[in-house]
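Step 1: inspect the first sequence and its C-alpha cells.
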Amino acid sequence: MGVPVRIVPYSETYKNAFRELNEEWIIKYFEMEEMDRIALHNPKEYILDKGGYIAVALLDDKPVGVCALIPCTHDGYDFELSKMGVSSKSQGLGIGKLLGQHIVGKAKQLGAQKIFLESNRVLAPALSLYKKLGFKEMTKISSPYTRSDIQMELYL
C-alpha cells in the first residue's frame, strides 16, 4: 500500500476522534440515533468495560479510522463489528480493509466464533469490504437502529 498506516488499540487520547470519525459518516448519510450517542460519547463504559475492543488507524500518527468490537447480546454471536468509520479525506487508501482485517483477527484472538454487523445498503463500499472479509447476509434480528436494512455474519 505504501501509506504509513498503523492500527493501535483505543485509548482516551482518541476519544474525540472515535466520536468525530463516526459522526462524519452517520451525519452524511443518516441521522444520529440514541444508540450512536451512547456508544460514541461513552466508548469506555459502553464498549471497553464490557469486554469490547476499539481499533484506531493512524496515518502519520493522526487518527483517520476507527472500528469497534462490541460484546454481543444476540444469541449465538460473540461480538458485533460496529462503529467503523474512515475519514473522508483518507478513503481509498485501504484503511477500512486494514481495520476490518485487524478487527476480525482481534475477534479470533478473543476466542470469538461468530460475529455480526448491521449496516445500510446505501453504504456500498462498506458492504463490499464486509463481503471481502467473509461476511454473509443473514436474516433480520431486532435492531436498535432505524437505519439498519442489512445484517451480516461471519463464522470465524
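Step 2: inspect the second sequence and its C-alpha cells, then contrast the two.
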Amino acid sequence: MSRTIGLVVPAFRPNVDALRAYVLDLEERLEPETIRIELDDPADETVEQLEALPATINAVDRRRGKGAAVTAGFCALETDVRAFADADGSTAVESVATIVDRVRTGKTDLAVGSRRHPEADVLSSQSVLRERLGDGFAWLARRLLAVSVSDYQCGAKAIDEVAWADACPHLHEHGFAWDVELLAVVDALGYRIDEVPVTWADAPDSTVSSVETPLELARGAVRARNRAKQVTGDSGDTTLGRRKTEPTILERLGIDTELERDVDDD
C-alpha cells in the first residue's frame, strides 16, 4: 500500500510570489495528501494572496520560530511521512522529492537534505561570511554530537511518522536550532538517518541573521547534545547550555503529548 505524504512549509515574512510558485511546484511533483503553510505573524494581504493555493494555511499572529512552526505542522498531519521545505525555495523541488522518497520507500527513518555533501549541486552560494559561519557550525556540531552529517541546517527534511512520534516529546528548540536537535534526538532513539545531496540556490532575501543565528545554533548544539544524553540515559553533564525551565515545544504549543503517542498503539 502506498504511504501517504504530508508537507509543511514554515514561513515568516515570505516573498509571496516565490512561495506560491514553490508550493504549486511541490504539489505537482510530490502529490502529497496535505500541504500546510505554517505562517507566522503575516500581514492580512499575505493570507489573502495565498488562499487560492492547494494548501491549508495556518496563520498565527506571532512569531513562533521555525522549530515550533514545523512541529505544529507535523503534529497536525496524519500521514505516514512528514516532510518540510523552507519557504524561500532554496532546495529544488526535485531534491525535496528525493528526500521524501527515501523515507516513503523505507530506506531510512529521517532523510536530511545537504548542501555540503560532495554530490550536492549548489547553483548560487551564500555570502562568504554566512558560508564560513555555516561551515564552522557544522564542524562544531560534528564534534559535539554522536550523529555526523555534513549539513545539519539545510531546509528540507522528511521523517517517518513513528520516528516523529518518538522524537517529538523530546524537542525544545523552537527556533533555527530545531534541526540539529531533531537529528540528535532521532539518532539517540536509534532510528536511521540518511544524508541526501540536494540542488540548492541561496535565497538573498532570507530572514536569517548572519551573526545572531550562528551563535544561537552553537548554543543549541550544546543543548541538543545534552538532550541526546538524557534520551540515552547518559548521566553526564546535562546542565551546560540548557535553560533550566525551558518547556518542550509541545508545551509551548499546548499540544497534548498523548496525541503524539497514539501511533504506537495502532
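Step 3: confirm your contrast with the notes below.
The longest strand covers residues 5-12. Residues 238-244, 259-264 have pLDDT under 50 and may be disordered.
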